[in-house]
């Protein structure tokens, strides 16, 4: 089985990267991490990559007058490792339309909300302010507009009455660590595909039951 070559882009902690590393260790996983690229030389995720024997490359966004110059180096690092699919995992730089032209239909992301609700940062505090009963996370293709793009998979997380942003973030993050490797598996295996701006998925079992919050009684 040939495995799809992933380039994982990070800026910080790298817990989603770690989840991908762990999952991709299985021989039958349809993708492998070819390279990890960080725009931040101090990203703890780089150490996670090294510990797993994966090359970590720093492409620092600082020191480039034009964003295109930074992206040219990014592109070179990715193509040098024959990357086929870019996985953003806590990558905190916005990419330009010309970079998207080069990687059209080959960039995915994990976002800590049920998109299209709560795009951007501080998703958990805003979800709690809005009083939602169900929060969650989304794996999606990336397009130039921030946190838009075809949705590959989502996980719903019930909000507890005593949740604060930190406790909710922790439970959503645990769901992210299961969702992102699952979404990558679907894409890398070809079981889910981007067709005309939407995701087509082979029928592979019934979805799990409805999540009610508060729970149903009786
Ligand atoms: C995650 O919450 C992810 O959804 C968001 O940035 C965070 C990255 O965390 N895009 P980590 O670096 O993977 O731990």
Explain what you see.
The chain has a seven-stranded mixed beta sheet, with helices on both faces. Strands 8-9 form a two-stranded antiparallel ribbon. The chain is built from six helices and nine strands, in the order βαβαβαβαβαββαββ. The relative contact order is 0.15. Strand 4, helix 4 and strand 5 form a beta-alpha-beta unit. Helix 1 (15-24) runs parallel beside helix 6 (165-189). With 218 residues, the protein is of the alpha/beta class. It has two domains: 1-103, 3-Layer(aba) Sandwich (Rossmann fold), CATH 3.40.50; 110-200, 3-Layer(aba) Sandwich (Rossmann fold), CATH 3.40.50.170. The longest helix has 25 residues, at 165-189. It is globular and about 60 Å long. The protein binds 5-O-phosphono-beta-D-ribofuranosylamine (GRF). Residues 10, 12-17, 45, 89-90, 110-112, 173, 176 line the site of 5-O-phosphono-beta-D-ribofuranosylamine.
In a nutshell, what does this entry contain?
The chain is of the alpha/beta class and 218 residues long.
Topology:
Blueprint: E1 4-10, H1 15-24, E2 31-38, H2 44-51, E3 56-58, H3 67-80, E4 85-88, H4 97-102, E5 107-111, H5 123-130, E6 134-141, E7 151-158, H6 165-189, E8 192-195, E9 198-201
Parallel strand pairs: 1-2, 1-4, 2-3, 4-5
Antiparallel strand pairs: 5-6, 6-7, 8-9
Helix pairs in contact: 1-6
Bound molecules: 5-O-phosphono-beta-D-ribofuranosylamine (GRF).
């Amino acid at each position: 089985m040939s495995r799809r070559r992933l380039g994982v882009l990070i800026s910080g902690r790298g817990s989603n990267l770690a989840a991908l590393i762990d999952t991709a260790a299985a021989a039958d996983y349809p993708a492998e991490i070819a390279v990890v690229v960080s725009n931040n030389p101090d990203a703890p995720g780089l150490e996670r990559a090294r510990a797993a024997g994966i090359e970590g490359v720093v492409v620092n966004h600082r020191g480039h007058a034009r964003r295109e110059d930074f992206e040219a180096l990014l592109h070179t690092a990715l193509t040098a490792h024959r990357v086929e699919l870019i996985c953003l995992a806590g990558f905190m730089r916005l990419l330009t339309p010309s970079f998207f032209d080069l990687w059209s239909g080959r960039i995915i992301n994990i976002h800590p909300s049920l998109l299209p609700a709560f795009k951007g940062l501080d998703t958990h505090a805003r979800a709690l302010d809005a009083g939602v009963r169900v929060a969650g996370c989304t794996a999606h293709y990336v397009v130039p507009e921030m946190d838009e793009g075809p949705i590959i998979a989502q996980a719903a997380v019930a909000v507890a009455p005593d949740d604060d942003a930190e406790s909710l973030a922790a439970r959503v993050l645990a769901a992210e660590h299961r969702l992102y490797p699952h979404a990558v598996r679907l894409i890398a295996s070809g079981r889910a595909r981007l067709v005309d701006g939407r995701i087509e998925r082979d029928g592979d079992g019934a979805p799990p039951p409805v999540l009610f919050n508060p729970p149903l009684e009786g």
